[in-house]
Design the sequence.
């Protein structure tokens, strides 16, 4: 039975979602404010977190950042919010959320997004060691190394790197990279370009051979071209 943490300050929504999840066979823990939610998320082991954006004490965006950057938690997070602009969605995903659901929502969509998140997380629990040249990534622990040096990546850059490494040495299109990171929420072209720039700074700039290459008009590839 999957254990879900629900962090939602609206008692009516919390009761509705909690009752639905329990009826669907999930075990549910609950927090009505951000600080309590963060404490539970850090100290307990959950299969997924359903997190409201607007919360008393600490908002969902800050909780995401603290879980990912400070606590090192990779628990799947589904963010709930009434904000529906593209910028808001991208900001939530950049903060570390895995998916985004806009209020009001149907329970069927909540089920679909939660199930998809849990399936992806279950697949990633089986550690896979990805390697391109002297760059390695463990998909179970998200540890990244190049030439024996530990590298620190943002959640978005990690998703990009996993997609690039799994495709290597083939070219992966811009659209497929966007889909790997943002699913059906397509940001403007500058968002992908900015994250790829940040990825290059970490995995390539300190080293003497570039691995991340732009293939004009086609997309991107991760490969040791000179060493092939």
Sequence:
């Amino acid at each position: 039975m999957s254990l879900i943490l629900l962090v939602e300050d609206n008692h009516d929504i919390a009761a509705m979602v909690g009752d639905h999840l329990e009826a669907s066979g999930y075990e549910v823990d609950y927090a009505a404010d951000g600080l309590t939610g963060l404490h539970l998320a850090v100290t307990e082991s959950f299969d997924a977190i359903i997190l409201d954006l607007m919360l008393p004490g600490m908002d969902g965006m800050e909780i995401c950042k603290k879980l990912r950057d400070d606590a090192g938690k990779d628990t799947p997070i589904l963010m709930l919010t009434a904000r529906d602009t593209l910028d808001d969605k991208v900001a939530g995903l950049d903060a570390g959320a895995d998916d985004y659901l806009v209020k009001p929502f149907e329970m069927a969509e909540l089920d679909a997004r939660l199930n998809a998140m849990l399936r992806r997380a279950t697949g990633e629990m089986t550690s896979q060691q990805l390697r391109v040249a002297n760059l390695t990534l463990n998909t179970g622990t998200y540890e990244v190394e190049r030439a024996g040096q530990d590298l620190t990546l943002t959640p978005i850059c990690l998703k990009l790197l996993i997609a690039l490494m799994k495709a290597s040495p083939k070219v992966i299109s811009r659209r497929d990279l966007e889909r790997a990171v943002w699913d059906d929420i397509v940001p403007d072209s500058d968002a992908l370009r900015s994250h790829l720039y940040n990825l290059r700074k970490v995995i390539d700039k300190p080293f003497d051979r570039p691995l991340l290459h732009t293939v004009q008009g086609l997309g991107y590839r991760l490969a040791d071209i000179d060493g092939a």
